[in-house]
Prior knowledge:
Layout: H1 2-10, H2 12-46, E1 57-59, E2 62-64, H3 66-129
Amino acid sequence: MIKEFKEFISRGNVVDLAVGVIIGGAFSTIVSSLVDDILMPIIGMILGGINFSNLSIQLGDARIMYGAFIQNVIDFLIVAFCVFLFVKFINELSKIGHRHKKEEEHEEVVETELSLLKEIRDELKSKKNK
């Protein structure tokens, strides 16, 4: 079982996933700060000085903090949009790489066909001269 665990941990995918989670956590902190410290105060000013973090409804003993929920939704949307842009960028890089590879393969095929045609031409010339 320990051997299997070591194999599992040493796979590249697990390490890549761990790095992604760590970077994602750090990125989430930055986005939360952007939303809490910059965007929400600006939106609050535009809407007449509303402080979203204090928006709540009191129901009996329960306090529903819908302002914090709004901030978290905005956090999520920004993170989701950034992930979308990142994935789109990676896909475009992948497409460029595939196109470049196809172009190289096409050039190799053309060179091979040209070489074969030259051999056939030379063979036909040599038979004609005999």
